[in-house]
Amino acid sequence: MELTSSVKEIYAQSEENIILTDAELNVIWKNHGDLPDVIDISALCDTPENAFILPVEKTATFEYKGRFADSAAMRFEPLRDNGIITNYLIHYYSCTDIERLSDKSGYLRFKSNFLGNIRMELSKMLAMLDSQKESFSSKAGTEYEHFDHEARLRILKTFSATVNMTELAKYFSGNFTTEYQSLSDICGEVCDEEGNLLEEDGCIFRYSIDPCIYFETNKSLIKNVLVNLLVNAYMYNDKEQRQVELILKTEDDRIILSVSDNGNGMTDDVWQAAITPFGTFQKYSSSEALGLALAKCFCDRFDGELSYRSEIGKGTCVTMSFPCDSRGLPKEFHVSRMPPIPNPYGSTYCIMAKGLDPLK
What we know:
By secondary structure, the protein is of the alpha+beta class.
């Protein structure tokens, strides 16, 4: 009953066609009345030569030629209790759904290639700046240095935004899973990886990470958010000696994760625009990289809060806070699937370009 309730809570209002069955494919619940009440096993097939056989050990899609529909498809996700398959979560695709997904797949391939071509052109522009830097710098001096700095900064922001669009799409589609894992270890990995890049460019990087802080999250998503915050702290900083600091701690039953800098600072208007996905694209401004919008989506998805304090010319501190998990140290491996969230921004997509330094 607990599983059925959870599935209902996630998919009751979903536009997807969802069927929950037991291990023998007896229908327990469906989220739309026009879905089949009985699944005809004989109508399921892997390929024309291979018949459908239970159990389905891993997620797989099968053709379904029952009386309910002609050449439909069903994607089976086995659900286990103590390693034993007890249920199947079935995504049903009608002929119309399949055609729509095919069209969408073609669009996504085009979009991916299009954004990839933009990034290739940006990379070529960086190569051109590198090849001419010494020649022009000797002629124009500090004036060229300022131009070179601004050009690289704009290239990096645009590059970052095109990659971050794909990352943001994950939050709106729910296309990720979560695990109960060590946030302390994840932060340590990011600090080791990104700290070296920051320090190579003369930035003073400090971090303080409390041990044994565990959190139900997706490792890839939180790492991408942290990379964005660290690179933002470095990028929006005109000080001769840049300083960046990351802190992870617990305070009053909350997990506190903050990134601070001694950079340019920001106003409330800039902050509000930056945390709105695609809001900064209404005008091509100084906040195009979508990093803060990514952090806002992460906090919204994981019951967190995103806040900041800033002083123009002195720096900014961006803080994410989350409820402490009462489970403490993990006793067993746990994975759960996240439901999609409504997308008010249309089918536009969103990660941070890692290691691309605009100032070299």
